Structures are given as structure tokens and as C-alpha cells.
């Protein structure tokens, strides 16, 4: 029987894009989004979407070679440039629960797919699906495990307040799924609000990587650090430069043999030797080349929708 870890899933959903480009509807509040939004016919965009397709293909192959179950879906639409980031529109939880989330950008709402939910129901034990997408009518948004970084062990939902994370939606999720909300503000060196929590925080079983300097309120910052230390985890502080290189946007995974930390090659290169040594005490570092995807403002953690459900017998 496969070893199960409440914090680190052993299976993920990935989306392979056929028409990848930087989303014009998310440029306003995503400071990590590097590229101008080119037209679909430009030569640069054509090359970028080919590279993005190949990098998703390669990443899925490498994850599978390390014992992670990857459910990969194709996206052939030209209207959903951010579909490669499925963790924003759904999440799964132990006990057979699935959540569907309200999205801020209108074209991102088209990413929600019934075939993915049906696959989860067929392959895993799903008891219920809680759909929060109706909150979009009231302009209340909560973009999944981008907006929240969940401590599945201590049952805490860490969330940066932003256009993508509404406190009322967060409270509703936490009430339904039995998490304690931990809402805070975070800003980069230019005073720009962080758009998603999972770019500055990664929670593993035995460690946390945290861009603590971005949490400007010292009382809240110390409270968060203390919570992590009290849980027995080692806290690895990330600099603003490392956050900009997506060091915080990583995900711990569990194979039959070991725990892995999936992160981008760019993030791996930006980490200090001592930081890597601390991580390697509990995980095998698995750097993946996703440079094309990162131009859209997200990295490997955003690309992986973890499955925390019990599989059905084959």
C-alpha cells in the first residue's frame, strides 16, 4: 500500500497548454508576470507556447519517474492562457472532499473543468464537492492553494490579503474544511502587494520556506514564525531576491520511497548551499525546468494541483 502523508500528496493534476501566453487580465496585480502579452500570431508567442508545452511534458515525465502519479489533461483553448495553473480553481482534501474556487480574472473562470472533477470521482474516494464559484457574483474571490498555503497537519490556512483572497471567502472555506484562518498582508520591496500566498511560503512536513521580510507587520510576522517553530518545523528564511526567483513556490510530494520537493530550476539555482542542505535532511530536491511557464507569473507549485484523496481500489 502506498505511504500517505497529510502534507505531501503522492498524485497531482497537471494541464498541458497548447496555446500558452501571458494573461492580459492578470498583469495588473501579478508583479511576477514578466512578459508583455503578445498577440497569438507573433513569432515569440508561438515559440513560447511550444516551449511551455514541452516543459510541462518533461516535468510530468520526471515526476512520474520518481514515483508520483500524474494525471495530465490537455488544454487546446486559446481563451485560457493560465490553465497551466490548476491549483487555483480546485483543491482536494482528506476525507474525500473537493473544493472549487471563485476566480478574480474572468478568463480564468473558464479553466474549471468537469472532466477533471469526474476523473477525481472515478479514481479516488470523493464524498462531496463544495463549489464556491457562485461568490464571483458578489466579487468575493479565493484562488485555491495559490491564495492559501495550507498546513494540513496543524489545520491552518495561511493567506495574504489581496484581490485574489477575500477574508469572507476565506472564513467560509475554513469553516467548511476545518482550518484556522491566518490572514496577513505582504508586500514586495516596491510596496506592491503580493498577489498569491504560495509565492512567498512553502510548508513541508518538517520545514517551512518563508519570505518573512515581506510580512511588514512585525507582530503578525513573529506570530507566524512562532506557529511554524511550535509545530516542530525548521524555518528557512528566503530573501526578497529569492522570492522573485520563485524559491517559495515549491511543493513537497510523497513517493513510495521518499519525500520530494518539486521546485523550478530557477529557484534551485537561487538557493544558498546551506538552505539546500537543510532541505535535503528530509526531502530529495527535484528541480524542474519551467522557465517558459514562469514568464506568466507562476512556477512549479502553481502547476501542480495536489491530490489528497484516497484512491479507489483498482
Automatic annotation (TrEMBL):
Pfam families: DDAH_eukar (PF19420). It comes from Paraglaciecola mesophila. This is Arginine deiminase-related protein. It comes from the Bacteria. NCBIfam families: citrull_CtlX.
Amino acid at each position: 500500500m502506498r505511504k500517505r502523508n497529510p502534507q505531501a500528496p503522492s498524485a497531482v493534476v497537471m494541464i498541458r497548454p497548447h496555446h500558452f501566453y501571458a494573461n492580459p487580465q492578470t498583469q495588473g496585480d501579478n508583479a511576477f508576470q514578466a512578459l508583455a502579452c503578445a498577440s497569438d500570431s507573433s513569432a515569440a508567442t508561438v515559440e513560447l507556447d511550444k516551449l511551455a508545452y514541452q516543459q510541462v511534458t518533461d516535468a510530468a515525465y520526471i515526476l512520474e519517474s520518481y514515483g508520483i502519479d500524474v494525471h495530465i489533461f490537455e488544454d487546446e483553448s486559446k481563451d485560457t492562457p493560465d490553465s497551466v495553473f490548476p491549483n487555483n480553481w480546485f483543491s482536494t482534501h482528506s476525507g474525500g472532499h473537493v473544493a472549487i474556487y471563485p476566480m478574480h480574472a474572468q478568463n480564468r473562470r473558464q479553466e474549471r473543468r468537469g472532466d477533471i472533477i469526474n476523473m477525481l470521482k472515478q479514481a479516488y474516494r470523493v464524498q462531496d464537492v463544495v463549489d464556491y464559484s457562485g461568490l464571483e457574483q458578489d466579487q468575493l474571490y479565493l484562488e485555491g492553494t495559490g491564495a492559501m498555503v495550507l498546513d494540513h497537519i496543524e489545520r491552518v490556512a495561511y493567506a495574504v490579503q489581496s484581490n485574489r483572497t477575500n477574508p469572507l471567502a476565506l472564513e467560509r472555506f475554513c469553516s467548511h474544511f476545518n482550518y484556522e484562518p491566518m490572514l496577513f498582508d505582504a508586500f514586495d520591496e516596491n510596496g506592491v502587494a503580493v498577489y498569491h500566498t504560495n509565492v512567498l511560503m512553502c510548508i513541508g512536513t518538517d520545514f517551512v520556506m518563508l519570505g518573512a521580510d515581506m510580512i511588514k507587520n512585525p507582530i503578525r510576522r513573529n506570530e507566524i514564525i512562532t506557529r511554524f517553530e511550535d509545530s516542530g518545523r525548521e524555518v528557512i528564511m528566503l530573501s526578497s531576491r529569492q522570492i522573485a526567483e520563485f524559491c517559495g513556490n515549491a511543493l513537497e510530494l510523497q513517493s513510495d520511497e521518499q519525500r520530494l520537493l518539486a521546485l523550478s530550476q530557477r529557484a534551485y539555482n537561487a538557493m544558498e548551499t546551506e538552505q539546500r542542505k537543510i532541505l535535503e535532511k528530509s526531502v530529495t530536491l527535484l528541480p524542474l525546468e519551467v522557465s517558459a511557464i514562469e514568464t506568466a507569473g507562476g512556477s512549479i507549485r502553481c502547476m501542480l494541483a495536489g491530490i489528497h484523496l484516497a484512491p479507489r481500489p483498482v
